[in-house]
Design a protein that fits this description.
The protein is an alpha/beta fold and 325 residues long. The chain is built from 12 helices and 10 strands. The radius of gyration is 18 Å and the shape is globular. The N terminus is likely disordered. Bound molecules: 3-hydroxy-3-methylglutaryl-coenzyme A and magnesium ion (MG). Magnesium ion (MG) binds next to loops.
Length: 325
């Protein structure tokens, strides 16, 4: 496939950004998968329903993975069956193999995701196979999903660095992203699993991926371990990205990525976007309340800056910036 350059809609500075961005909410899955606390199903239901009511249109609700590997996701089936679904909201699930795919279909997941990585060691640690074997496993899942008309998202982890192998070459990320896209994933989400990215590294990585996958089919997924996530998101926006993964209250971390912290907080991303005149359809004050509720349920404070600012009384929700250009 030829080179695909990011398209910008105009020449002035603010017009270089998309008019609207889709936030792909990770809280119920990436946010909770590594939680040690015993989280009640009722709290998970409240979380998913609260996110939908706050305006999130895409919610990764659970994962159909081995309960021995990720015990916190063991009630995903029950969760999918118990939530009251809001029309227009897409409830998605991770499915590493056919067993997971069948379970996700059985409880009515609207969309599924296969997840691979640009690092051999991480792939082994995370899903117990090589990169090549992981692709072989994804093929029948994607075919079965196509037959049932279920959209498939593809993840590539370790797009900037790997907790076991260090720096990851942009070319390797581009290679795996291209395979997932060519297999039929409607979108490829690029995960900085350990949060080691900086804007320049992200720019180089995205440029390599755009050689093979159109910019509108690429999403970014930043963990915020080193506090770089928002800067990296700004770079991604400047390069034409308009789908961003994030987690309410900055919940989470990957069980197979050691000290990596949660995804960038959804509240912080929404604040950034609204402050740039970019629409998300999300009510920030309502979202922050959802974040406070789930963190209270698991005995933690929200990690997102905006949630903290509201919580400690520094900013009243009605005074939070909403810019129109
Ligand atoms: P395996 O042990 O190689 O699989 O694990 P297996 O096929 O040999 O099966 C072993 C056992 O697991 C069997 O049970 C299977 O039935 C069961 P037993 O006979 O021992 O009782 N099993 C399952 N149970 C429920 N659902 C399933 C399933 N499959 C097998 N789907 C496997 C391979 C992939 C299953 C395992 O490695 C696994 O579950 N890994 C979990 C990985 C995971 O969830 N990681 C976190 C999500 S990825 C992430 O966070 C990164 C991301 O956010 C992006 C980023 O930040 O970079 C997406
Ligand atoms: Mg993640």
């Amino acid at each position: 496939m030829g080179s695909v350059s990011p398209s910008f809609s105009g020449s002035s500075f603010s017009e270089r950004y998309p008019n609207s961005v889709t936030i792909f909410e990770m809280g119920p899955r990436d946010g909770l998968q590594n939680e040690q606390a015993d989280i009640q199903l009722e709290d998970k239901i409240r979380l998913v329903e609260g996110l939908a009511n706050a305006g999130l249109k895409k919610i990764e609700t659970g994962a159909f993975v081995s309960p021995k590997w990720v015990p916190q996701m063991a009630d995903s089936s029950e969760l999918f069956k118990r939530i009251t679904r809001k029309p227009g909201v897409v409830y998605t699930a991770l499915t590493p193999n056919m067993k997971g795919f069948e379970a996700a279909v059985e409880c009515g997941a609207d969309e599924i995701a296969v997840f691979g990585a640009a690092s051999e060691t991480f792939t082994q640690k995370n899903i117990n196979c090589s990169i090549a074997e992981s692709i072989e496993r994804f093929v029948p899942i994607i075919e079965a999903a196509k037959e049932k008309g279920i959209p498939v998202r593809g993840y590539v982890s370790c797009v900037v660095g790997c907790p076991y192998e260090g720096e990851v070459e942009p070319a390797k990320v581009a290679e795996v992203a291209k395979i997932l896209y060519d297999l039929g994933c409607y979108e490829v989400s690029l995960g900085d699993t350990v949060g080691v990215g900086t804007p320049i590294k992200v720019q180089r990585m995205l440029s390599a991926v755009f050689e093979h996958v159109p910019v509108e089919k690429v999403a970014v997924h930043f963990h915020d371990t080193f506090g770089m996530a928002l800067s990296n998101i700004l770079m991604a926006l400047q390069m034409g990205i308009s789908t961003i993964d994030s987690s309410v209250a900055g919940l989470g971390g990957c069980p197979y990525a050691g000290c990596a912290s949660g995804n960038v907080g959804t509240e912080d991303v929404v604040y950034l976007l609204h402050g740039m005149g970019i629409e998300t359809g999300i009510d920030l004050a309502q979202l922050a309340q959802v974040g406070r509720d789930i963190t209270k349920a698991i005995g933690k404070d929200p990690q997102s800056k905006i949630a903290k600012a509201i919580m400690y009384g520094n900013v009243a929700p009605q005074n939070m910036v909403k810019t129109t250009f």
